[in-house]
Design goal:
Elements lengths: L1 H34 L5 H15 L4 H26 L5 H39 L2 H7 L4 H40 L3 H11 L2 H27 L7 H35 L4
Helix pairs in contact: 1-6, 1-8, 2-6, 3-4, 3-6, 4-6, 4-7, 4-8, 4-9, 6-8, 8-9
């Protein structure tokens, strides 16, 4: 039993140390960008734009397909359940609870991990192997501000925009299902959505997607920089980036949802 407790404690300590290193990497990249001006803001803007284009724009077809299917399935399930309860008018509320609060941020983060997280980890691993990071240092360019910061900022912006696009597309596909199956008018559907969505939903949406972008790209950059000499390490760090990003994003989303859930039931006086 004590061996199990020691093992759990050692694992927790490792995770805390890893989290601290990720936070330190993100902080140092932002600070070095504000204090290091030799590479030029125009150059940084070009790298950030390229990251947004790859992470955000090129992922839109896949996000559109997932959003349309997810919104349609959620709306169909809501209609089936609400029909028995006599509350088809509350389908919009169900869409906000499932799509806006949970499904949109989570699926968007998983798509970004699969596409961009792996690309960033392997790209930085290749740069380490080819001594490109050392070459930047030799030229007086801070790798944290030139490599890490543009990917962090571009990734965060892309995740937030993709999640917003996912939600818009999913709610629209949900309306199409409601209109086709039950003949629900648009004004009633939109009214149900607007009544269900509150300021807390916008806050949850922003915090979840901001932290998802920060987690995904800080983990991917950190793992990519762990490559030492051999190109055979690149697939290994890429796999670790996917696993750790997924675990961290799921844990954060779950903890934030639990926090707002307990805050809600406390406000309602249920506990």
């Amino acid at each position: 039993m004590f061996a199990l407790v020691d093992r759990i404690g050692h694992q927790v300590a490792q995770n805390l140390n890893y989290t601290y290193e990720l936070f330190l990497l993100s902080y140092l990249s932002f600070r070095s960008t504000l204090t290091s001006e030799f590479q030029g803001w125009r150059t940084l803007f070009g790298v950030i734009s390229a990251q947004i284009y790859f992470t955000g724009w090129q992922a839109m077809p896949l996000i559109s397909f997932l959003a349309f299917g997810s919104g349609a399935l959620v709306a169909l399930q809501a209609i089936m359940q609400m029909t028995f309860l006599g509350g088809v008018n509350y389908v919009g509320t169900f869409m906000v609870m499932v799509v806006v609060r949970e499904l949109g941020p989570l699926l968007t983060a998983l798509i970004v991990i699969a596409r961009s997280g792996t690309a960033v980890a392997s790209e930085l691993g290749s740069m380490k192997v080819n001594k490109e990071v050392d070459a930047l240092k030799a030229m007086g360019i801070n790798p944290l501000s030139y490599i890490i910061f543009p990917r962090l900022l571009g990734g965060i912006i892309s995740v937030i925009c993709l999640a917003f696009y996912f939600i818009m597309f999913a709610t629209f596909s949900g309306f199409l299902v409601c209109r086709f199956v039950k003949g629900l008018p648009f004004d009633l559907y939109f009214s149900s959505l607007s009544q269900a969505a509150g300021m807390s939903d916008f806050f949850i949406f922003f915090i979840k997607n901001f932290m998802s972008g920060l987690i995904i790209f800080s983990v991917s950059c950190y793992q990519g920089l762990q490559v030492d000499k051999s190109p055979h390490e690149i697939p290994q760090v890429t796999t670790k980036a996917v696993v750790k990003s997924t675990v961290y994003v799921l844990m954060f989303n779950m903890l934030l949802t639990l926090y707002f859930y307990f805050e809600y039931i406390t406000t309602m006086g249920m506990i």
